[in-house]
Amino acid sequence: MGARTAWVLHVDLDQFVAAVEVLRRPELAGRPVVVGGRGDPTERGVVSTASYEARAAGVRSGMPLRVAARRLPDAVFLPVDAAEYDAVSDRVMATLRTLGAVVEVLGWDEAFLGAVTDDPEALARRAQEAVLAATGLHCSVGIGDNKVRAKIATEHGKPAGVFRLTAENWSAVMGDRPTIDLWGVGTKVSRRLAGLGVTTVRELAAAPVAALVAEFGPRMGVWYHELGQGLGPTTVDDRPWVPRGHGRETTFQENLTTPEQVRRAVRELTDRVVEDVAEDGRPVVRVALKVRYAPFVTTGASRRLAEPTRDPDALVAAVMALADRVEDREVRLLGVRAEMAMPEDAGPAERTPVRGRI
């Protein structure tokens, strides 16, 4: 690469939420910390994040708090404090904007930096030092020639390190790794890829595009094929992220046992989503309802509206129609989501495909 090259850096705060809590309570340093729900592992709720010490014992994000408590009874359980994480995140992003790079915020704890420089490692170290000085938090930085490689590189730099991943070393670093190590490939997708005989990143890169398109569709099939080669968008865009929708969900401490309870809870969630929609100002094009039945079976349904609308009555009617399909079984979680019409200037295809608060 030339001396002055356009680079993408991915800055990821190490164990962000747990680290913020340890900053507030220094006595927790080195102890297993689990943050989730109201901080009560006897209640229903899931782990939002876990410190490295808790992760070493097998505690993971998304795990029910009760399971985490059984696995690690000596852990410190704390409630989620979104307002504090927002405030600290804002300080981090403001600090990154002082470095002379374009900053694209991905969520509470991560951002892309775009910069033309002859020494991206020096910029990465400057970012780490600036964030540490401003907030007391450590971060890892991935350096890449596009967003995909920068994002994946960060995992190789954790914790508090720097790693470069480009076209030059992509195959050597990633070729033999399982496909689930790729950004955007989860358990279900990796399982479907395995069904096609594709288990490693190198095999994905070499897989026939036609087979991937047949399995995943024309857009995602091509995307996964390119992902196997480490290809991805290169433009770092600092315009504010425009969310595709607004959603609310609740895990009930006691199962809902009657259709009346379910409908009442769906209506309450819908009213809150309608308020979010009104603040956003964009019309809704689709509504969705998520239902988790006892003990732990999750289903979902959605419907596209006849036309985009901001009318609260129309939105309520559409969601309640979905509620009519809920089975007469005990319900432990409900979620309502409204998908919005995207503005014409929301961004080109170069925009990062996965964004949002954690």
Describe this structure in words.
There is one protein chain. The chain is of the alpha+beta class and 358 residues long. It contains 13 helices and 12 strands. It has helices spanning 16-24, 52-55, 65-71, 82-96, 120-135, 147-157, 170-174, 187-195, 201-206, 209-216, 218-228, 259-280, 312-323; strands spanning 5-13, 33-35, 49-50, 76-78, 102-107, 110-117, 139-144, 162-165, 245-256, 284-293, 297-309, 331-340. The strands form 3 sheets. The protein has a 5-stranded mixed β-sheet with strand order 5-6-1-7-8. Strand 10 and strand 11 form a beta hairpin. Helix 4 (82-96) packs across helix 5, helix 10 crosses helix 11 (218-228) and helix 12 packs antiparallel against helix 13 (312-323). It is globular and about 65 Å long.
Summarize this, please?
The chain is an alpha+beta fold and 358 residues long.
| Oligomeric grouping of the chains | single chain
Overall mean pLDDT stands at 92
Task: Compute the CA-based radius of gyration.
Answer: 22 Å
Low-confidence stretches: 345-351, 353-358
Overall shape: globular
Give the biggest sheet. Answer: 5 strands, mixed
Based on secondary structure, the structural category is alpha+beta
End-to-end distance = 35 Å
